[in-house]
Every structure is written in structure tokens, then in C-alpha cells.
Specification:
Strand content: 15-25%
Bound molecules: zinc ion
Strand order of the largest sheet: 1-2-3-4-5-6-7-8
Largest sheet: 8 strands, parallel, barrel
């Protein structure tokens, strides 16, 4: 049986979701994370339609990916141009990605009303675009847009478009349920016809979730012989979203004996799911199957006692398989095991019965209840682990800070100023700085005070700052969570802070970020 390959389009189709936005930096980070997970193809964007995506393709070339291949996305050439003169196809070649995916029209109403051309000419567009790209790329995929709806309207025409893509020498034809309105029953019937017409041709599926069955449609397609599944992490995407790869991957590996990730990678699924949401600054869905915080949470007393005796009583799979954990209100041993695993990531040996593991777990529970999240703030987590082990060093002592915002005129930007007093060893340092906003001023004042003692801090800069209002208390009294990303030219790391006070939450994350810089240098014995 052909292995199933996973094609992620979080960075392209996913970003078409309402309120889901990624910066170039976020996109690079997510691509690396997906590569870590063992995803086969990562669609980075549409270079012909979106100039920001061009930057992604330039930037990603500087990274050595382990398993994933980067794909650039685009359409068949413009009806009033030829393949050789079309700027969209040129942009795809210029993206220099090993994979190019183009979509073409399968549905007659789209050819006439969206593309404004004839059915005959559309067939040429498909063939010529693929034939033009073929010599320039390693791997060439064809997305048959609206295929299932097109097939319903005119089966013969829809099949003919696929024939043209085969003539144009596409490596795989991906049948798309672009409007997301089809159900597994239709997918099965249509795929049977396609397979019958084009035996031996590699097929894929790209499903949207408007009828809430995108995952089921994708799995049905695999059952019918599809060897590529396209989707997004957590199912983000236009309208109701794309097929959710987290569920698809878990189902393929655990339910269908069609492993699609390298061994041991499945347990990184939850972490990847959280990472994407944190970077997009979107609240994760706690009820999401497999990876949600509540996916293996047991609340009912009867459930808890049964699960403690035999987890299979109320769990369809073992949560650790997807990197999740069982959450029950009494003695949480699985949590301790998770701490042990996480500690191993940082080269720290703990046994699950170690009192330190228990202490970290208690602290972690307390912090999580207060709104801390460490999935995207590994640096803060590592510092927490070290503190519990009595290894965290204090690099400075805060004697106090003050932040002032002054607005002098309605149409003038306010001016922020921070003063700070710290103590390093026996020396007290007192400085002030202006900034763009209070957090920036505080950050500048703190570094200015510390750089005298720790000159290596000049290498470091804050590159991203995200604030999330946490659910619970409404209005301005809400808790906020601040996530900061810093870098020093070699590494980047993320830290977190939570408080009712945005300055305090930022302060916590800033201090962690500075502590982490110093701590990681000592850890790596980097000569200074
Ligand atoms: Zn789509």
C-alpha cells in the first residue's frame, strides 16, 4: 500500500481564516515546527498574489529542513496570457521551492462566471500551465478546484480537466471539495469513478469543513486510494475551515494503520497544535479531539474511578500517543511522567517519583490555573524547572521601577518613560529611558541598567510581543497573558507573564527573557 503523505496548507489556506494572522517570522517558525513533526509538504503561500509570501520563500531557503518539502501555490495562467508570459507562473518558478501546486477549474460555472472563458480554453490553461512548469520543478501537484461540485454539474467535463492535468505531467491530482459541502458518501462514489477512468494515477484530497465532515471526507478519500491529504493544523481556514490535520494524522496512525509521520513524532501533535495557535494569538479550542486540553479530561466521579482502574473504559486512545495527557482531579501520575519527559528535553534527568517532579507539577498546575501557558514559552518553562531544582540563579535584584505615560494633546502620540533601580552584587544602578509605549520604555531602562554588568545583553533584542486577554473576568479587570520572543543572533526563545496588570505581565516575561539569555550562555559555556 502506498504511504499517505501529509500536505499542510496552514500558512496559505489557513491564513484565510477570519482573525488568524501570521507574520513572516511566525510563518517561518511554524514551517520549522511542521518539519519537526515530520510533515511531508508545507505550502508556504501564493507568491503570485501576495508579495508578503515572496519574502517567505526567500527566507525559508536559508533553513535546512529535515523531512518537509516547501510548496509554492498558484493558479493556472491568466486566460488572456500564455503560460510563458504569465507573471503568476513566473513568480512560482522564482520562488525556487522544490514543489509547486497549481489549481485549475473543474466546474463549468466557475469557468464561465469566474474565469470568463470557454470550457475548451480552460482545458488548454490547465495543460499549458502544467507543461510550462514541469521542467522547472522537482514535484508538481495539480489541485482540481471544486472537483466534486464540478463532477455533479458535468461529470464528463470534470474528468476531462483531470485528463489534461495528466497530459501536463502533474505528479498527483488533488481532488478538492472547495465549498466544503460534500459528504463521505459522495466522495466515495466520485473517487471510484475517477480511479476507474485513470487507473494508476496518484490522487489526493483537499477538503473544507462547511458540512462539518472534512476529516471524514479526507479519511474516506484515503480509504478509496488517495495518497495525499491536504489540510491545516487545527483545521483553521476560510469560513468553517479546512480539514483538520491533527485529527486526520491521529486517525490515520491510530485507527487506520496508515502511519503518515516518522516513528515517535505523533506524540508531538498536541505541542504543534498549541504552537500554531499561540503564534497566531488565537485561543485554542479546549474541546478539540485528540489535542484539546479537555480531550482526555475526566470530571465525573464514576468516570474517574473507572479510568483509574482501566483507562480504556472512557478513553478511545491513550492520550500520551498524541502528546496529550489525562486530566483527573486526584493523584496525577501521568502529569509527573510528562514533566519527566519535558525535563529530558532540557537534558535534566528526573524520575517520575522524584519530589522535584511533584513540586514542578504542583507549581505548573497553579500557574496554569492563573492563566500561564508554557507550550509556546519553553524558556520560561526551563527556568521554572531549574528554580524547582534549586538551580536558578538571580542575576539582579529589583529595587523598584516606575512607568509613566504622558499625553499632552489629543492628536499627539503619548510619551512613555520608565525609571528603574536594580542591584547587582553590592552595586545599585538607577537609570531611565524613553520608549514607544510603556513596555518598550521599561525594556530599554532595564537593559540600560544591566548592560554595564552583563555586556552580552547588547546582543539580544525583543522581536515579538503578544498580549492576550484571558477569558474569565470581563472588561478591563481581565487577566492578560504576555508572550515575548527574543533573539541574540544565534538563538531565539519565548517567555511568558500573566497578571491583571499588563506592565507586570510584561515585566515577568522580560525578566525571564533576560534570565534565559544569561542562563543559556552559562549552560553552553559560551566564551565571552
Ligand atoms: Zn482550500
Amino acid at each position: 500500500m502506498q504511504p499517505v503523505q501529509i500536505y499542510d496548507t496552514t500558512l496559505r489556506d489557513g491564513t484565510q481564516a477570519e482573525d488568524f494572522n501570521l507574520s513572516l517570522e511566525d510563518k517561518i517558525r511554524i514551517a520549522l515546527k511542521l518539519d519537526d513533526l515530520g510533515i511531508h509538504y508545507i505550502e508556504g503561500g501564493w507568491p503570485g498574489s501576495n508579495p508578503r509570501d515572496v519574502g517567505f520563500f526567500e527566507e525559508i531557503q536559508h533553513y535546512q529542513l529535515k523531512t518537509a518539502k516547501i510548496a509554492a501555490f498558484g493558479s493556472t495562467h491568466h486566460p488572456r496570457k500564455t503560460a510563458g508570459t504569465d507573471p503568476n507562473l513566473k513568480a512560482l518558478v522564482a520562488a525556487k521551492s522544490p514543489v509547486v501546486t497549481i489549481f485549475g477549474k473543474s466546474w463549468t460555472i466557475h469557468v464561465r462566471d469566474a474565469l470568463h472563458t470557454t470550457l475548451e480554453h480552460n482545458l488548454e490553461l490547465i495543460h499549458d500551465s502544467l507543461a510550462y512548469l514541469r521542467p522547472h520543478v522537482e514535484t508538481l501537484f495539480y489541485d482540481a478546484e471544486h472537483f466534486f461540485d464540478g463532477f455533479r454539474a458535468d461529470p464528463e467535463y470534470a474528468l476531462t480537466t483531470l485528463g489534461k492535468a495528466i497530459e501536463g505531467r502533474a505528479d498527483c491530482l488533488i481532488l478538492c471539495d472547495t465549498n466544503g459541502g460534500n459528504i463521505p458518501h459522495t466522495i466515495r462514489e466520485v473517487m471510484a469513478v475517477v480511479k476507474d477512468r485513470f487507473p494508476g494515477v496518484l490522487l489526493g484530497i483537499h477538503a473544507h469543513n462547511d458540512a462539518d465532515v472534512a476529516v471524514a471526507n479526507s479519511l474516506t478519500a484515503v480509504e478509496m486510494g488517495a495518497v495525499q491529504v491536504q489540510g491545516t493544523i487545527n483545521g483553521v481556514g476560510e469560513r468553517c475551515g479546512n480539514a483538520n490535520l491533527c485529527s486526520i494524522i491521529a486517525n490515520l496512525c491510530l485507527k487506520m494503520e496508515r502511519p503518515c509521520l516518522p516513528p515517535d513524532k505523533l506524540q508531538r501533535l498536541r505541542e504543534t497544535s498549541r504552537f500554531v495557535m499561540e503564534l497566531a494569538n488565537v485561543q485554542p479550542n479546549r474541546y478539540q479531539p485528540y489535542v484539546g486540553r479537555s480531550a482526555f479530561a475526566h470530571k465525573g466521579g464514576v468516570h474517574i474511578s473507572a479510568v483509574e482502574r482501566n483507562p480504556e473504559t472512557y478513553e478511545h486512545v491513550r492520550p500520551e500517543l498524541v502528546g496529550n495527557r489525562r486530566r483527573i482531579l486526584v493523584s496525577d501520575l501521568s502529569g509527573r511522567a510528562a514533566i519527566k519527559r519535558k525535563a529530558q528535553d532540557y537534558g535534566i534527568e528526573l524520575s517520575a517519583s522524584d519530589p522535584v517532579a511533584l513540586q514542578v507539577l504542583e507549581e505548573l498546575k497553579d500557574l496554569e490555573n492563573r492563566g500561564f501557558q508554557f507550550e509556546a514559552a519553553e524558556a520560561s518553562f526551563e527556568l521554572l524547572l531549574n528554580r524547582a531544582m534549586g538551580r536558578r540563579k538571580q542575576y539582579f535584584e529589583l529595587l523598584g521601577f516606575r512607568v509613566m505615560d504622558q499625553k499632552l494633546k489629543e492628536d499627539k502620540e503619548p510619551v512613555s518613560e520608565a525609571t528603574i533601580q536594580i542591584k547587582v552584587g553590592g552595586t545599585v544602578e538607577h537609570t531611565a529611558a524613553l520608549g514607544q509605549g510603556p513596555v518598550n520604555a521599561l525594556d530599554k531602562a532595564l537593559r540600560k541598567a544591566l548592560e554595564k554588568f552583563y555586556p552580552q545583553l547588547t546582543e539580544m533584542e525583543l522581536i515579538d510581543y503578544k498580549v492576550r486577554v484571558l477569558p474569565g473576568t470581563p472588561g478591563t479587570a481581565s487577566q492578560v497573558r504576555v508572550l515575548i520572543e527574543s533573539q541574540d543572533g544565534t538563538n531565539s526563545w519565548r517567555t511568558v507573564g500573566v497578571s491583571h496588570d499588563i506592565i507586570e505581565a510584561s515585566w515577568q516575561a522580560l525578566v525571564d527573557s533576560i534570565d534565559y539569555k544569561m542562563y543559556s550562555e552559562e549552560k553552553n559555556h559560551k566564551p565571552k
